[in-house]
Amino acid sequence: MSTSDAVAVRFAQVGDVPAICGIVNHYIAESSSNFRTEPYSVEEWADQLAAAADRFPYLVAEVGGTVAGVAYASPWRPKQAYAWTAESTVYVSPAHQGLGLGSLLYAELLKRLEQQGFRSVMAQITQPNPGSEALHERFGFTLLGSIRDAGYKHGAWHGVGIWQKELAPLADPPAPTAPVER
Ligand SMILES: CC(C)(COP(=O)(O)OP(=O)(O)OC[C@H]1O[C@@H](n2cnc3c(N)ncnc32)[C@H](O)[C@@H]1OP(=O)(O)O)[C@@H](O)C(=O)NCCC(=O)NCCS
């Protein structure tokens, strides 16, 4: 990234999906940060975006007009009482790591989830992953505990840390979460 490359965080659009898949599929193939072993197809990701983007923010970071990172939220669990608890996910392309894009994406994602009325954001971080742990700590997530040897990938067992950030004081009863506002 050169100093003249404009950086922007914006909502993901369907035209971004091939670039998003390229980034996420890289980490599926090369790391254990994502427990999938099969790559996403563009259609699968486009369906996911279409199904969820009104309820959860799906954001991309662009550098010089190229999609270099993605962050989005999803339900932590499907049962109704979990409606105020989201899960966050973030990936930055290998060429753009450590330059602040993950932080830009998370600042916007967490701000929007708070505005929508979510109470908590959860993250699951495969161990070891010092970069992701540093990012989550920076944004106020705390490690609640770990699932020991939660998954086996690339010839090794990996634990998964369960991280939580509380966004808002408790309301009783809570108002329904608001849809994504563009
Ligand atoms: C984790 C990830 C999203 C972080 O994004 P990023 O743009 O590289 O992070 P930033 O440049 O915004 O840095 C955020 C913080 O993490 C720290 N950090 C980043 N990479 C690090 C590393 N490899 N080791 C230790 N700390 C690291 C930075 O110093 C910074 O901390 P600071 O604010 O206290 O200085 C990115 O590295 C990535 O995509 N990794 C591979 C996929 C992945 O693991 N995704 C998360 C799945 S849970």
TrEMBL record:
User: Matching CDD domains, A to Z?
Assistant: NAT_SF
Q: Which InterPro entries match?
A: Acyl_CoA_acyltransferase, GNAT_dom
Q: Which domain of life is it from?
A: Bacteria
> Keyword tRNA processing, does the record have it?
no
What is the name attached to this protein's record? N-acetyltransferase
From the UniProt record, which GO molecular function terms apply? acyltransferase activity, transferring groups other than amino-acyl groups
Its ancestry begins with:
Bacteria, Bacillati, Actinomycetota, Actinomycetes, Glycomycetales
Q: Which UniProt keywords apply?
A: Transferase
Q: Where is the N-acetyltransferase domain?
A: 7-168
User: Pfam families, from UniProt?
Assistant: Acetyltransf_1
